Prior knowledge:
Layout: H1 9-19, H2 30-41, E1 47-51, E2 58-64, E3 72-77, E4 97-98, E5 101-103, H3 107-127, E6 133-138, H4 148-158, E7 164-167, E8 176-179, E9 181-190, E10 194-195, H5 205-226, E11 239-247, E12 253-254, E13 257-266, H6 272-293, E14 298-307, E15 310-311, H7 317-326, E16 332-334, H8 340-345, E17 350-352, E18 367-369, H9 370-381, H10 386-395
Parallel strand pairs: 3-6, 3-7, 7-17, 8-16
Antiparallel strand pairs: 1-2, 2-6, 4-5, 5-18, 8-15, 9-13, 9-14, 10-12, 11-13
Amino acid sequence: xxxxTAPSARALELARTLVRMNTVSRNxxxxxxxxxxxxxxxxxxxxxxxxxxxxxxANLFATLGExxxxxxxxxxxxxxxxxxxxxxSLDPLSAEVKDGRLYGRGSADMKGFIGLxxxxxxxxxxxxxxxxxxxxxxxxxxxGCFGAPRLIAELRxxxxxxxxxxxxxxxxxxxxxxxxxxxxxxxxxxxHAAHSSLTPQSVNAIEVGARVVGKLADMxxxxxxxxxxxxxxxxxxxxGSVGVIExxxxxxxxxxxxxxxxxxxxLPGADVAAMQAEVQAYAASLEPAMRAVAPEAGIRFETIxxxxxxxxxADDPAVLLAARLAEADSTTLVAFGTEAGLFQKAGIPxxxxxxxxxxxxxxxxxxxxxxxxxxxxxxxxxxxxxGVEALDRRLARP
Length: 398
C-alpha cells in the first residue's frame, strides 16, 4: 500500500483486529488487553496490568527499553461508547475497509491509533533509542477517566517519570494544547410521599430537584453572559447541563425521590470546586423547609466523574515534540475531554495528537480515513528519528 494514502498492512491489520473486539465501557476490555500483552511478549516486552476493583478491566503499561532513561508515553484508551439505537449501515464490529476508510466503533476513537502504536514496536526496539518509549492503554475513559489514575499511580510507585506524553485522541494530526474539563455529579433528593390531595403533608422531591436544576441553568447563563472566555474553543466559555432526571411513581402520589445528573465543562483555570460549592450551598438553603415537614428529607450529591481540563503552552516540550513529529506549523484546541489533564497533573508534559476527527467518533458508521492512519504512522515512526533530536534539544533535564 502507498504510505502516502494508507498505513502499512501490519498496522491496518492490528487496528482492524482491535476494532472487532467489543470493548464498550459496560463490558470487560480484557480480550483486547491480553491480545496486546501477548503481541508485546512476542517482541520480548513485558507489560504491567492494573485492574479495576472487580478485576474485569485493566490498564496496560509497557516500557520499550527497560534500562534506558524514561522517555515518551504513547497513550490511548481501550473502551468505546455503545451504539445502541444508532442507525448503522454495517456491523459496528466489522472493521470494514472501503472507500479509503476504516469503519467500526472505536476506529477513530481510538483503536486506530492504538493499533498503529503496537505495530510500531518492532521498529522502535530495532532503533535502539537512547530513551524508553512507554505504551499506556487505559480502561473506562469514556465513562469518567477511571482507569488512568490507577495507571499513573503505578508509574509513581515505580519511580517512572516520563519526559512527555502523547495522547492519541482524534485531532486530525494537529497537536492540541487545550481542552475543557468534564465534571459530573448525581443529585439525589429525598422528599416525603403523600397522596396528591394532601400536598401540604408532603415534600415533593421533583419540585425541589427542579429548583436545583433552575439554579444550574442560572449559573450556566451567567457563565455564558459574564464568565471568562477562551477563544478557540467551539464554545468559548464554561457550560453546564442536566442530562438525566428520574422520579415519581404515579400522577396522584407526591414523589418522595428525585435523581438527576448534571455536568460542568469548564475552561482551563476555572474553579470547579467553587462552582460545585455554589450548587451545594443553594441545595442546603432548601433543606430547612423540607425538614420542617419531614425530618428525613434532604439533598445529597454523588460524584460521577472528574476529568480535569488540559492547557499547555505552545512552547511546552510535548507540544513542540508533537509539532516536530507531525510536521505541523499550527496547533488547535479540542472540545472533548481526554486523559491529558490527568497526565499533566502528574507532572508529565502532555499533548493531544492523533488520527481522525471527533466529528466521526461516537456516530453511526464511525470511521477514520486510511490517509489519517498513514499520517499517524509516519508520526510514530518519526519518534525513532527526529524524535531523538527533539528530545535531546527540548526535553533534556539539567
